[in-house]
């Protein structure tokens, strides 16, 4: 049986580059197994090659370790929901929880089913329904929501080149019938305050932001460091705020696979249908893995495997 180190958070005992190298080799050996599919319900995502894998770790002192395609950009999709949740909580605090619940859903990320039973109050801010309400809150509370989000992401990642993929956002707007349905349904309960189209435009824009694993690992640092963002030096949220967002990621960040994820990985994490998964080792590092082929629940198959191997090889897990 694996014996836990005296201080599991002391990472000076670990050769992180060696560990990343091993994971990279293991993942690449699995490319041929032909498991998982890239998301094709968003036309622009269907063209992304599946045999890609990148992983990056950003330590609290700013050191980055990376491997594979860690500098290849992709759209961040639902990973963006972590950042809009942060912005919404900073704007209206606990009032957000009157409009979005904070329970795991056990349903797919784009499910409509619970919404009717629960009268237009989405289960959590990481399902599409909850993220649409969160987007509405951001729109209502920041003068120029789009510019605010872009500035937020550039500051969190330390990369001034982070930008939206306008073509991708357009492609999602044209094919996102289910999101249109969700938004209208929530509106019918009075839980959207802005024009449905404006909310959806903002939601699709947040999903289309293009970043790479290094950008995203750095952008997770504030959640590992009690709300303090290393790249900008800003206190983005309070230590309590960071703890709560991590808790949401743990219980709902990978949708109806959150239980399985806690079992195999054991870190707060958030996935997106482009194949990205961000994760946090509290007090130690932000992480990002990316590999486009997804499992049935919409989480990166090899990304999940890589995080599993990482937590087992390092002993880093909140459990
Ligand atoms: N899980 C996801 O990444 C979903 C995001 C995607 N843009 C959608 O709304 O369907």
Explain the layout of strands and helices.
Blueprint: H1 16-29, H2 43-46, E1 54-59, E2 64-68, E3 74-75, H3 80-92, H4 113-117, H5 128-141, H6 145-157, E4 163-164, H7 166-175, H8 177-188, H9 196-208, E5 209-211, H10 213-219, H11 221-224, H12 239-252, H13 258-264, E6 269-271, E7 276-281, E8 285-290, H14 301-314
Antiparallel strand pairs: 1-2, 1-8, 3-5, 4-5, 6-7, 7-8
Helix pairs in contact: 1-14, 3-5, 5-8, 5-9, 6-10, 7-9, 8-9
Bound molecules: glutamine (GLN).
Question: In words, what does this structure look like?
Answer:
By secondary structure, the protein is α+β, with helices and mostly antiparallel strands. It has one domain: Beta-lactamase. Helix content is 45%, strand content 10%. It has helices at 16-29, 43-46, 80-92, 113-117, 128-141, 145-157, 166-175, 177-188, 196-208, 213-219, 221-224, 239-252, 258-264, 301-314; strands at 54-59, 64-68, 74-75, 163-164, 209-211, 269-271, 276-281, 285-290. The strands form two sheets. A five-stranded antiparallel beta sheet has the order 2-1-8-7-6, with helices on both faces. The longest helix is centred in the first third of the chain and has 14 residues, at 16-29. The protein is globular, with a radius of gyration of 18 Å. The two termini are 16 Å apart. Bound molecules: glutamine (GLN). The site of glutamine has 11 residues, from loops.
